[in-house]
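Request from the bench team (R.T.):
"We need a structural guess for the complex before ordering more LMY7XDAE. Sequence and SMILES attached. Just send the C-alpha cells back."

Command: build protein-LMY7XDAE structure.
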Amino acid sequence: MAIVISGKELATLRRGAMKEEVSTFTEKYGRVPHLAVVLVGEDPGSVSYVAGKEKACIEIGIKNTTIRRPNTISQDELLAIVNELNQDDSVDGILVQLPLPKHMDSDFIINAIVPEKDVDGFHPYNVASLYLKQPGTVSCTPKGIMEILDYAHIEIEGKRAVVIGRSNIVGMPVSKLLLDRNATVTICHSRTKNISEVTSEADILIAAVGKPLFVKADMVKEGAVVIDVGVNRNPETGKLCGDVDFEAVKDKASYITKVPGGVGPMTITCLMENTIECFLKHMEEK
Ligand SMILES: Nc1nc2c(c(=O)[nH]1)N[C@@H](CN(C=O)c1ccc(C(=O)N[C@@H](CCC(=O)O)C(=O)O)cc1)CN2
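Reply to R.T.: structure attached below.
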C-alpha cells in the first residue's frame, strides 16, 4: 500500500506558520494583508470554495472582503469592481472566482487585474514570469503540488514526470515547475495516442484531466508517485472523487494523494501564501 501524502496535514502546518508570521505584521507594517474575492453567481462549488477561502483568511489573520454579485451582472459592472479594487491601496490581493457566467470573457476580466494584486497568478504577466523564470506569482494549485512533493521528500531531478491535462490553471504551469526542477516532463491530453503506455513510464504522475477515476492501475508504473488534482463527482455514488481510481492504484504506487484531503487544501493554502507575498511586496514599495 502506498504512503498517502496528506495535503490537509501539510495545509494545517503551513497555515499555523502563516498565522504566526501575520501576527507580527500590525506592529511591523501597521496592518495585516487584505484579500478581496469576487464571486459572481451561486455555483455550489464556487460558493463552497469561496467559503473555504474566507475560513482560511480568518484562521491565519488575513483580512478578507468577499464581493458577491448575481450572475445577471454585466461584464462592464464586473470590470468596474475589479478596477476599483485595483485602485484601492488597502487591498493587496484580488481574486475573481472561476468559472464566470457564460456571458463573460474570463480572460478579459483576469487581464484587468493589476499583476501585482493577482494572487491567482493567472494574469499573462505572471504566467510569462513563470515561463521566463522571473519573479511573479505562481498559481495556487501547481504551487501546492510542488509543496506536496517536497513535503514528502520526493526526488524530482532526473525523474520522468507525466502530466495528464494541459490546462492553463494546472497542467501547463505544473509541467513548467517540474521542468524547472530538472524532471523530464511529458504532457498528455485528449489526443494523446496510447495514453497508458505514456503514463506507465512516469516516476511522477500528475492527474489533472477532470475525469472521475480516469487513472487505473494499468496506467501506473510500479512504485510511481501519483498526485491527484481532480475534484469530480463519482457518477455512480455522487460522492467527491479524483481523477485517479484510488482503490485500484494505491497498491501499485509508492506515494499517492487522495481526494478529498490532497491537493485541494493546498490550493487554498497557497492562495494565502500568495496573498502574504503580494502584501509584503506592496509594503516594500511604500
Ligand atoms: N480564481 C480561481 N478559481 C478557481 C480556482 C482557483 O485556483 N482560482 N481553482 C478551482 C476551485 N478551487 C479554488 O478556487 C478549489 C477547488 C478545490 C478545493 C478543495 O479544497 N477541495 C477539497 C474538497 C472540497 C469539497 O469537499 O468539495 C479537497 O480536494 O480536499 C479548494 C479550492 C476552480 N476555480
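Two things stood out. The mean pLDDT is 97. The CA atoms of residues 140 and 267 lie 5 Å apart.
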